[in-house]
Amino acid sequence: MAVETLRKGSLDPPNSVGLRAAFLVLWAIDAIAATLFFLVPYATELNPITVLFYQLFGLPGVPVAALCYAAAVVMIGHVLSDPMDVRFVGVVVVLYTLFAVNNILLLLFREPVVEMLFL
Description:
Elements: H1 2-10, H2 17-37, H3 48-57, H4 61-79, H5 84-109, H6 113-118
């Protein structure tokens, strides 16, 4: 019973449902944008893991890579204890917000955010 209690206690999701939902939405937007990067000639995916999956599996490899990232985030969030799990997912949401905004602006305006800000 002690092992079951330990296992059950160590695999708890972060308490913030809104934070988990925000991660899911931002992850989906980023995954779609990353897939579009391989369809447009003016954008380049910089993540080497995503590029490797694309080279191995073609276009379906891009969402597979995105699923691997999401699985890693979910597993880490379940293993960390409270409040570290909420902080971790919060940091991931901030990062995915930056990724998604950059990817969308790159797809819409054909220029990275950094170049738009400094020109």
